[in-house]
């Protein structure tokens, strides 16, 4: 059937039962059926006392072989090696399961939806999706799980246990999968690639989210305004527009933000950090998005056009602001004097009239300005450039 070789006829006979699903050994009182007599004996021993105990942690086992395998958790011994990729395993059964990742063999299939699995345990766990069974519950908070491993990972939230450590930077993680993903930051490995555009990712979840750019899928919906989002994180941020929640605050000026990324970008106003540079004119920017918009001044690309008047814009934000002209909409109002603006940036500039804030400083004479454009005009006085009377922008009064 599959061509797999065996050193003993009995092993071949037992293996055949994977394909035929034959289970000739029956325990009447447990109503469980097994592929081999050895598996039946192990099951019967589960009803017996656990005669073999670990001298390290005290855990008990009904079979000596199980105790030997368990000891390898403490010794980190992995005597079984894959002939293809040379990965090592602590048990022969784990090696056999691993080999199916190379052969793509999936001998266990779901009789509900037909999905195939390389492990019987994975099929058992999968069945719980159909039955909605969650037999493993947390004894601290009561949350239930369909997979025991998920409960184990969840428990570490309560214990703050992080047993998996990076050998390079020594950062600790609560889950092995998180460590494996972290290791790719050192190796720069990106094993997941988009079949539409070829872009590569270090995380499968990032690839899944990226795919929605091509499919325009937006599975996450706001219960309040019914707006749809392709990312759960974007929905969470959006919800704060309804709740007015701003959990991230600047430790310099105290300004609050609904997104951590916005706070990071805001900090650069105080530090004057501009880590993003244009390869063409070498102009620097504090935000990568601002660099991307700037690059379109070189390419003359205007991706966003107004469907009312047809005017084109290089940035989506500029188009959004432009729409307010047609709608005569002024959604941004000053909380001090009530004056309204169609553009958030104009409100920000206006508020500096009340606060007398002048965050833009000349590196030559140290004169301060409330607007970046006014600083740029001022710098020409040092370079002896001609100024037009209309160059300096007045503050919004």
TrEMBL record:
Residue runs in coiled coils: none
UniProt KW keywords: DNA-binding, Metal-binding, Nucleus, Repeat, Transcription, Transcription regulation, Zinc, Zinc-finger
Domain C2H2-type: 1-24, 52-79, 80-107, 108-135, 136-163, 164-191, 192-219, 220-247, 248-275, 276-303, 304-331, 332-359, 360-387
Source domain of life: Eukaryota
Pfam families: zf-C2H2 (PF00096)
Compartments where located: Nucleus
Keyword Metal-binding recorded: yes
Protein known as: Zinc finger protein 2
Organism lineage: Eukaryota, Metazoa, Ecdysozoa, Arthropoda, Chelicerata
């Amino acid at each position: 059937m599959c061509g797999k070789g065996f050193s003993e006829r009995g092993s071949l006979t037992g293996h055949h039962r994977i394909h035929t699903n034959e289970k000739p050994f029956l325990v009447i009182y447990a109503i469980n059926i097994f592929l081999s007599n050895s598996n039946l004996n192990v099951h019967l021993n589960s009803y017996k006392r656990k005669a073999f105990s670990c001298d390290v942690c005290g855990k008990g086992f009904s079979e000596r072989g199980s105790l030997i395998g368990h000891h390898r958790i403490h010794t980190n011994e992995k005597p079984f090696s894959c002939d293809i990729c040379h990965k090592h395993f602590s048990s022969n059964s784990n090696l056999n399961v691993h080999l199916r990742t190379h052969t793509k063999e999936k001998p266990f299939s779901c009789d509900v939806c037909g999905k195939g699995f390389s492990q019987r345990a994975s099929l058992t766990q999968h069945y719980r999706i159909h039955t909605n069974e969650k037999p493993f519950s947390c004894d601290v908070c009561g949350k239930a799980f369909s997979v025991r491993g998920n409960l184990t990972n969840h428990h570490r939230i309560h214990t703050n246990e992080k047993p998996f450590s990076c050998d390079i930077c020594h950062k600790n993680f609560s889950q092995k999968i998180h460590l494996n993903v972290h290791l790719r930051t050192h190796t720069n490995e990106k094993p997941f690639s988009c079949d539409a555009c070829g872009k590569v990712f270090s995380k499968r979840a990032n690839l899944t989210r990226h795919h929605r750019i091509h499919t325009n899928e937006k599975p996450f919906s706001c219960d309040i305004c019914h707006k749809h989002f392709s990312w759960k994180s974007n929905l969470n941020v959006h919800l704060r527009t309804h709740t007015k929640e701003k959990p991230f605050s600047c430790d310099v000026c105290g300004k609050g933000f609904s997104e951590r990324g916005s706070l990071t970008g805001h900090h650069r106003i105080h530090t004057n950090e501009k880590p993003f540079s244009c390869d063409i004119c070498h102009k620097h920017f504090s935000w990568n998005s601002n660099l991307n918009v700037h690059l379109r001044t070189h390419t003359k690309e205007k991706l966003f056009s107004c469907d009312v008047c047809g005017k084109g814009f290089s940035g989506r934000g500029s188009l959004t602001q432009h729409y307010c002209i047609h709608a005569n909409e002024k959604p941004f109002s000053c909380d001090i004097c009530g004056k309204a603006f169609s553009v958030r940036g104009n409100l920000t500039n206006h508020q500096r009239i009340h606060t007398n804030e002048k965050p833009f400083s000349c590196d030559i004479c140290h004169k301060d300005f409330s607007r970046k454009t006014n600083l740029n005009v001022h710098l020409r006085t040092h370079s002896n450039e001609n100024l037009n009377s209309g160059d300096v922008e007045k503050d919004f009064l």
